[in-house]
Amino acid sequence: MSLTAFDRSYDELRARWPEFTEELDVATPYGPTRVLAYGPADGSPLVLLPGGSATGLVWFANAPALGTRHRLYAVDLMGDAGRTSRQGTHLKNANDLMAWLDALLDGLGIPRAAVCGHSYGAWIAATYALHAPRRVERLALVDPTQVFAGFRPGYLMRALPTLIRPTEARARSFLAWETADAHPDETWQRLYALACTVPGRTFVTGRRPPAAELSMPVLVLLAERSRAHDAGKIAERARRVLREGEVTVLPGATHHSLPLTAPELLNARLLDFLDARHRMPGR
After folding, report:
1. Which residues contact 170 (CB under 8 A, 6 or more apart)?
2. How far apart are CA 257 and CA 194, in angstroms?
3. Closest to 31 in 3D by CA, of 102, 90, 111
4. What percent of the chain has pLDDT above 70?
């Protein structure tokens, strides 16, 4: 079977992951889920959930640092573009999405893990932390959407053409608008734009998770120049509602340029938060 342009771009970005990264296809009732595993086998597990159209490969710039102390599991989301296949039970609602993640962690043999999500992946991560709090040791939310507030109307209007009639050119134009001057990696930009055109993608969403009920330590990393929402307002709300939370605004970052643009600060903050010796300061 000949490779599509998306497959070729996927393989090109896959090559940017560190040596000894493993490719796992984990069986779930909803289909086999592609996971990239990297880091010491005995390292504490860290599950990485990407934003929509980003694929699990988006963490390539973070993996070398995060994988020094943790066993990383970067997931291609069920229903999105990537190497995860939809087979078996149809993913219809948020309950199915949570059951899929339960099955994924079971298949990986992970009873408890730190979970980090970006954008849509952060909504999934926060929703899962409320669904299965005993399985989520720590929760990191990278410029989360639909967790502390909704999208800016202007962002939705800009995204609409790509959502209704997706083409690579429209996805590129939208990405260029949101990431102006941030200059995300070109290989990833191409993969993102092609991912938007993959037919049959379905994103399961649900209600905004009640963040005040999150019982585990939570780190919120926000993009200073995010066009998806107002980072200052999100930071204020997150500090107000989280029981045990830290909030950091990453200078110069935009919503879609995370987590791969200037990853050093993000990596450092995330590693500090995940460190078992970490002490939660006052908010």
Report:
1. 161, 162, 196
2. 16
3. 90
4. 96
